[in-house]
Design a protein that fits this description.
Length: about 350
């Protein structure tokens, strides 16, 4: 249930509504908007009886929220959320491109890739310092040394940086050096990590779990918002299916639906979605055409020699081609600036 307060309602009236919600045994979560204050009721297991609240001073209306997630839903927050990192916007009027190698590599190589993807149109640099690989024998990342390299990318190349936090105990250390904290597919339901990154209140990029439903994905995002962190970016990266012709199946079905259900920005990662270099560009185009707010891709100046995920890493020229594709696709009606399709 969402309680919408009248424009000009007083702090005392809002306090009284919150107190009444507590008396009913629920938890109020106020969310002041630009023109109105909305108070979300959380902690209820079924429908909330609204008669008492409806007649309180300052209350405009009580709207039932039909989904199990609340703070991430469009019912509660109809306008698109735009996550801002300095001058870069994710979820705004133009597509956002996140590019870089799978892993942080040597300083020289990482800076070279950053310089080149920036020149080709990247807004944000990606690279993992901590790598959650399926095999314990695969490259596990450079760890703290990698974080210092990412700091140099920020300072010397001027690109904001996203990098994965694989464990709650690493969150503060990673947050010292990077702008956006990534939660990987394998950790989408690591609730200790979700709560920790919610508390840190730094922008988070939340990958969809390998076999997560849309509802599970949005509930994971709800953990972050429930801890008071509104800056959450969703990223579809392919799900596990029966097919054996690609690493995962990029679920483009979920993109327009996620955009209907949530106000959070939705990105597509075609690199992990398909797992093969030669198919990244068609799926990047498809992701944008399906309504993604931008793309996250593995890009390298020497893709064959990438420390990890070389087979799905594209070269800088291909990335530049995708940026060009996006400017052509942006002319499609309703893509950029965004229009939300009715459900
Ligand atoms: C990555 O972005 O390099 C990564 C490990 O992604 P995912 O969690 O989607 O597999
Ligand atoms: Mn990777």
């Amino acid at each position: 249930m969402l309680i919408i307060m009248q424009q000009g309602s007083t702090d005392e009236q809002c306090d009284a509504v919150e107190e009444q919600i507590r008396r009913m045994g629920y938890a109020p979560l106020p969310g002041p908007g630009e023109n109105r204050t909305a108070i979300c009721i959380t902690g209820n297991k079924g429908p909330v009886e609204s008669a008492l609240l409806n007649q309180m001073a300052g209350v405009l209306e009580c709207i039932p929220v039909t989904k199990p997630y609340k703070l991430v839903s469009r019912e509660v927050h109809p306008d698109d959320t735009v996550v801002r990192i300095g001058s870069v916007a994710v979820g705004g009027e133009a597509p956002t491109f996140i590019a870089g190698p799978c892993s942080v590599e040597t300083e020289a190589r990482t800076l070279e890739v950053a310089r080149r993807v920036r020149a080709a149109g990247a807004h944000i640099f990606r690279a993992g310092a901590y790598k959650p690989h399926t095999s314990p024998y695969s490259f596990q990342g450079l760890g703290e040394e990698g974080l210092h390299t990412l700091q140099r990318v920020k300072d010397e190349i001027g690109l904001p940086v996203v990098s994965e936090v694989t464990d709650a105990s690493l969150a503060e250390k990673v947050a010292e050096h990077v702008d956006i904290l990534q939660i990987g597919a394998r950790n989408m339901q690591n609730f200790a990590l979700l709560k920790k990154l919610g508390e840190l209140k730094r922008p988070v990029l939340l990958k969809r779990g390998i076999s997560a439903t849309l509802e599970e994905w949005l509930m994971a995002a709800e953990y972050l918002l429930a801890e008071g962190n509104p800056d959450v970016i969703l990223c579809e990266r392919g799900v596990r299916t029966f097919n054996n012709h690609s690493r995962n199946t990029l679920d483009l079905n979920v993109v327009p639906l996620a955009r209907q259900r949530t106000h959070l920005p939705v990105l597509v990662d075609p690199s992990h979605g398909v797992g093969k270099r030669d198919r990244v560009r068609p799926l990047a185009r498809a992701g944008l055409a399906a309504g993604a707010h931008g793309l996250m891709m593995e890009v390298h100046s020497h893709p064959d020699t990438a420390y990890s995920d070389a087979h799905q890493t594209i070269d800088v020229e291909t990335f530049a081609g995708i940026v060009k594709d996006a400017s052509i696709l942006s002319q499609l009606e309703g893509l950029f600036p965004r229009a939300v399709a009715a459900e």
